[in-house]
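input
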Amino acid sequence: MPNLMRTVFRGLNERYGCRIFVLSLGDKKSWFERGRVGPWAMTLDELARELDVLVFVSAGNRSPRGGNVVEQGVTQYPQYLLEEANRIFEPSGAANVVTVGSLSHGSGLAAQHRDDAHVRAITAGPNEPSPFTRAGPGAGGITKPDFSDLGGTMLFSAVTRSLQSAPIVPEAGITTLNHDFVRQLFTSASGTSIATPLLARKAALLLQRFPEASANLVRALLAGAASFPDEMTTRLQAMDALETASVVGNGLVDPVKAVYSDDHRVIYFAEDQLDIDKFAIYRIPIPVEFQTGGKRTIRISLAYDPPVRRTRADYLGTKMDFRLIRGCPVDHISNFFRSHAGQESTHPDMPPRYDCDLKPSKTQRGGNTLQTGSITFTKDTLDYGNEYHLVVRCMGGWATDELRQRFAIVVELEHQIGVQLYARLRPRLRT
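output
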């Protein structure tokens, strides 16, 4: 399979210029263990880096509790999604690809089921994890899936003592074209294989808007536009941050938010390269309007495509991270990070009064090739001045022969609706 992937991807890219690939295949016998990566996943990681393409891979499906105790599909949802047997398998744990989990589009109940006590819904409504979606982590313990999108749900029938899904119950699935189109043009289907092309379409909209964008930039823009809908947060409230991320990743992507700024929301982005064991400092203008007046959020998203090698103890050849610094002179920042250059993994953080406490924490996001972190302010921040600084660092691992590491960074400033932030910052914006 890895050799076939190389032939197909390179052929389609060279002949037709294909930049988005959707893969809904997997090896159920090959689960991802921490630190263990298979040849298929490594091949996809290498192709994503070599061709600068976006590879979307479905997280995979599994019947709740393996289909053995079907009642628990309702009574123990969503906790069984964290079972060891529900882990993603080869190649969906690859580091440089975009892995997609599935969300419900509703309860799945048809009109004839609503008053039928013998048929029970598992999901109460839209944007909850699908009962069949698989969970991470991926290669080397990285956060997987990266995102989730609509892929359908399941129902429990007490009469037949079975779990039912599309196309048997069309309302439990997503309407799609039928491969047997002569018999019936449309059908209903469910699974992470349905969710994956839906997210790939959102990436295609980004490439339509920014045709020269790198795969890293598209990944970072998707991460910046992802969120946890209220229904998702409510359903997963018993899980901690790491468990939630292993089920739904960074959440559901809003395609409009990924492509366009709003009056009250502004996006900066940069595509760049860094020498190994070097850092870059980016200046972020903070207007007075953003320093006062209610709830404001800064969100940072970073994507990079490191070389990989499954024969190494550390799968990724390079690692990157970022810090958001405020209220500190740029020369002070530069001197601090220069004094710690060359350290492969961690270094002392700047004092908390300077270092913004982004969530997820630096520990949780640090090992991922797609990272996002945000901070929300409710109090005035005038004391920190009209400039923040973003520090992006590249740490060398075994890839000492690499001259530079490519990456993309996206910064989003969002204020309450009604604040004309975009008009204030437009002269300084690239998008």
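quick obs: The chain has two domains: 2-257, 261-428.
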